[in-house]
Amino acid sequence: MINAFIICDEKISSKNQCETLVSELRKKNFFKCDYLIIKKRIFHYLPNVLIFFVLNLLNFLKHSKYKDYNLIISCGRTAAPYNLLFSKKNYTHNYHILDPYFSRDKFTNIIVPYHDHKKMKVYKNTIFTVGALSKQINHLKKVKQPRGKKIISFLIGGSGKSSNLTIQDIKGCLDILGKFRNKYIINYCFSRRTPQKIKNYIIKHKYSSHVYYPKGDLNPYSDLLKSSNYFIVTQDSVGMISDVLNTGKSIYIVELKNIKRKLKDFSDFLIKEEYVRIFDGNLQKPCYKPLNEVKRVADLITQNFTNDYEPKSIDLDTF
Q1: H/E element holding 128?
Q2: How much is the pTM?
Q3: Can you point out the beta strands (E) in 38-89?
Q4: What values do phi and psi take at 183, rounded to 5?
Q5: CB atoms within 10 A of CB 269
Q6: Can you give the C-alpha Rg of the chain in angstroms?
Q7: What is the pLDDT of residues 171-188, one digit of tens each?
Q8: Letter string b/e over residues 162-176, b meaning 16 or more CB atoms within 10 A of that residue's CB
Q9: Nearest to 275 by CA among 298, 242, 240, 297
Q10: Cα separation of 46 and 28, whole Å?
Q11: CA distance from start to end of the chain
């Protein structure tokens, strides 16, 4: 039996990646788990090596209801020091999703998106993934769509520390979709990060029959993943691109002028490997097989248990 401890910060993306991996592991193993959600405190702004030092100084474990876990999974920068702190108590398989920024070789495996490989030293315990860990939805029942019309969904990211989405970035795409008029069913799906001025621009300039979401409490994102034939995704949206890669459907990227190098590296890698294309108005059949990175990672974790702990890793030559 796997008795797991799941540690993540307060970011929704961190929680989602942990939950996705846990859900996949449950399919393969008798699995129990507890959770620790780290609420940000002043010392969490320190580098991870100092956070680890502070936790030891505070004798954090002494004041924690610690159980004997044989698996620890963490995600998010500030979760990594907690992972190492708990795992060092006994011999525990410990995995961290994303770059832990310190003591990378002290984890059983670190699970890192391939586009991050340039900024870090690669250790033998590194598992590289194509994009983020996201749910495989290909097996789910498809939503019935109107006969004769195919569906295009434009998934729109936004602005943050890694990118700045502007009207100029999406204007060309919006103009092309407007010319399609009623040839396709076209959905615009905003994310939590989409600036209000971008939403307002799309709502004002979209073709009249085209639809936008969310509307109130209605956000059919999962249904769009199942029902749409083509996807257009802004370059900053690693999570949404990863979700679509699991569908095996055609993906088109809208490039941003102001975006961090690692996110550009991600889309450049996908273009080079022919997972995605730049959107220019031409819609083609998909050129890749559906991915299922979370299953691949879960399989490696399970193998580590069944093989009496023989760490597995993915070599850069795989990509």
Answers
A1: strand 126-129
A2: 0.82
A3: 71-75
A4: -65, -35
A5: 18
A6: 21
A7: 999 999 999 999 999 999
A8: bbbbbeebbeebbee
A9: 242
A10: 38
A11: 33
